[in-house]
Design the sequence.
């Protein structure tokens, strides 16, 4: 856990509104780790949080159009 904490702290240190949740599956057991810089702590456990899934299809479409233009 300490290796994960030190790795993540470098990434999250300057991001004020970031909340990062990492789930690790080992031999059928799931462990959740939550990291943030928000002073107001969330009362929701990581395993009960809902996340939006971003669309990256626009990126792929743009790349294909640029390749076709070449």
Sequence:
């Amino acid at each position: 856990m300490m290796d994960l904490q030190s790795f993540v702290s470098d990434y999250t240190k300057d991001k004020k509104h970031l909340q990062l949740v990492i789930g690790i599956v080992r031999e059928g057991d799931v462990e959740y780790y939550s990291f943030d810089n928000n002073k107001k702590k969330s009362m929701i456990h990581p395993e009960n949080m809902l996340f939006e899934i971003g669309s990256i299809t626009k990126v792929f479409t743009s790349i294909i159009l640029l390749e076709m233009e070449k």
